[in-house]
Write a structure and sequence with these properties.
The protein has 332 residues and is mostly beta strands. 5% of the residues lie in helices and 44% in strands. The protein contains three helices and 24 strands. The protein is globular, with a radius of gyration of 18 Å.
């Protein structure tokens, strides 16, 4: 488990009193690695381990970006990428293994799984999430080692216990996509997922509606759902991550934008435009030298699929500085 990150009340108070212009400063993003879209190298999700290594899902692979800035292919996930399958959400589990979600965007293709990858790259099937229309996407662990996986196609959240047994944990219309006005051709609802500091709520982004919701969480059970905010600035929302102050950072892939949601639901733009290209996932650095760095994957999916044609797709791993470190992924 990660060590708890402590933000003193003095520091929190100081940050809260900063002028709005300082708090919303928009430093430029730096591209760390580029990928070849002609080879299907579209990085979708990103996470980090205790040591500061980054893990990215790219096409049908899991890549590791080491603390000495080396990008290696850690594992190839056995799904039919050429037929429309892809690796999506990634998280490091309490056992030190990396968990990878796969899904298919092609009808009748069976690829809705969660895979378990050892630190040395051995791959094993962990859970089967196949239902008609299922698109499992992002994932998060609770304190007992259970996984919660968003399903963008079915508007639900899966629960997977440490033995790999899966069941639908929560389903609600607020988690469904918008069939009348989908972002990417097919409705996409529940997407990014994250616990708040005290693990009393699960926050979930809804891609098509630009919506952030929170689900009450107690003893592993869902206790109601409410909308935190809905905004055109969030339409196309994908991965989410909290900073230590409880500000929610949102990758808005449809608008080449990183936005934030404040405590009262206010939405601000933190970064927009090049070098962002359909950013899809966010991870705060955990190493001693990069805890004030936010890493992101530029998925470039809209330009790769010809939905946007203003310039060629530019998939990449990028980073930009932030004022506060991220909320611990493991414990409050």
């Amino acid at each position: 488990m990660r060590h708890r990150r402590i933000v003193t009340w003095t520091w929190v108070l100081a940050v809260s009193l900063l002028p709005a212009t300082a708090a919303l400063a928009r430093p430029p993003a730096t591209v760390l690695e580029t990928f070849d879209p002609t080879q299907g190298q579209l990085p979708e999700s990103i996470t980090t381990d205790d040591a500061g290594n980054l893990y990215l899902s790219v096409g049908g692979t899991l890549r590791e970006y080491t603390t000495d800035h080396q990008l290696i292919t850690l594992a190839t996930i056995p799904v039919p990428v050429a037929q429309g399958a892809a690796t999506l959400g990634v998280k490091v589990g309490p056992d030190g293994f990396i968990y990878v979600v796969t899904a298919a965007f092609a009808p009748n293709l069976n690829a809705a799984f969660v895979w378990k990858v050892s630190p040395t790259g051995q791959v094993s099937l962990f859970a089967d999430l196949n239902q008609p229309g299922a698109i499992p996407n992002d994932l998060v662990f609770d304190d007992s080692g259970n996984l919660y996986v968003t399903d963008s196609g079915l508007g639900q959240i899966w629960n997977i216990d440490p033995q790999g047994n899966s069941a639908v944990w929560f389903k609600d219309p607020l988690l469904l996509g918008d069939p009348s006005n989908p972002i990417a051709g097919a409705p996409l609802g529940a997407n990014g997922i994250a616990f708040d500091r005290f693990r009393r709520h699960l926050y979930v982004s809804n891609t098509d509606f630009g919506r952030i919701v929170r689900i009450g969480f107690r003893d592993g059970r869902a206790h109601g759902i409410e909308t935190v905010t809905t905004s055109d600035l969030l339409r196309g929302a994908d991965g989410i991550a909290f900073d230590a102050l409880g500000i929610l950072f949102v990758a808005v892939n449809a608008s080449d934008r990183i936005a934030t949601v404040g405590w009262g639901g206010s939405v601000s733009v933190r970064l927009e435009g090049a070098p962002l290209d359909a950013p899809s996932s966010l991870a705060f650095g955990t190493g001693g030298a990069d805890r004030h760095t936010l890493y992101l994957t530029n998925f470039a999916i809209l330009r790769a699929n010809g939905i946007k044609t203003d310039h060629p797709p530019q998939p990449s791993l990028a980073a930009f500085p932030v004022l506060l470190p991220g909320l611990d992924l493991d414990s409050p």
